[in-house]
Design goal:
Layout (H helix, E strand, L loop, with lengths): L4 E3 L1 H9 L3 H8 L2 E3 L1 H13 L3 H11 L3 E3 L4 H10 L7 H13 L2 E3 L3 H9 L4 E2 L1 H10 L5 H15 L3 H28 L3
Parallel strand pairs: 1-2, 1-4, 2-3, 4-5
């Protein structure tokens, strides 16, 4: 199974809480998760009776979330990254897998995104997934705004950031609508 993104626990949990894991897969394709992320999202989630854990299990069954086994170089790199005390084991494994497999890392935590960047790993956040869906016309602007506001509540996004992202999305939506008009005028029916 071809994947383009390795996901950390936080973004998966946020999107699972929103019941949007299928949406995630539609936007970026199947998302790989390393063992530490599986333990955190599924095993610990099930132990605590969290509904989002069951949604992740269902996504695994549908193969929109794909558990990974770490290679020896990935284990070694994750251990090296683990010397940074502010990174969790899942974040270290995500960065190591993304680096070794030349994939993007789906991360929420700013420190983890910085660590990934220092390793030359491109990152994506849950809000970026929403933008990709808007650009690819998988969602309407109204649906984008609803999903972004739901995500803002879950992540504790500040009001200024939410408004900035809504304004950017509105500009994108306007441009997409203009493009549709231009496409229609160039194709006589």
């Amino acid at each position: 199974m071809k994947v383009a993104v390795v996901g950390d626990a936080s973004p998966l949990i946020y999107l699972a809480k929103m019941d949007q894991l299928a949406f995630l897969a539609q936007a970026v394709g199947p998302v790989a998760i390393p063992p530490a992320v599986y333990r955190e999202t599924v095993e610990m989630g099930q132990r605590h009776g969290r509904p989002d854990a069951q949604r992740i299990v269902e996504a695994i069954q549908r193969q929109t979330v794909v558990p990974l086994e770490l290679t020896a170089p990935e284990i070694q790199l994750a251990d090296e990254l683990g010397s940074e005390p502010r990174l969790g084991q899942g974040e270290c494994e995500v960065i190591a897998c993304a680096m070794q497999r030349h994939l993007r890392a789906l991360l929420h935590d700013k420190k983890a995104r910085r660590a990934a960047s220092a390793q030359g790993v491109r990152t994506i956040q849950a809000a970026d997934v929403l933008f990709l869906s808007l650009l690819r016309r998988h969602v309407s602007f109204a649906e984008f705004k609803r999903l972004l506001r739901d995500l803002a509540v879950l992540t504790g996004m500040d009001a200024a950031t939410l408004l900035e992202r809504e304004d950017l999305a509105e500009e994108i939506a306007d441009q997409l609508n203009l493009q549709e008009v231009e496409d229609d005028s160039n194709n006589p029916t």
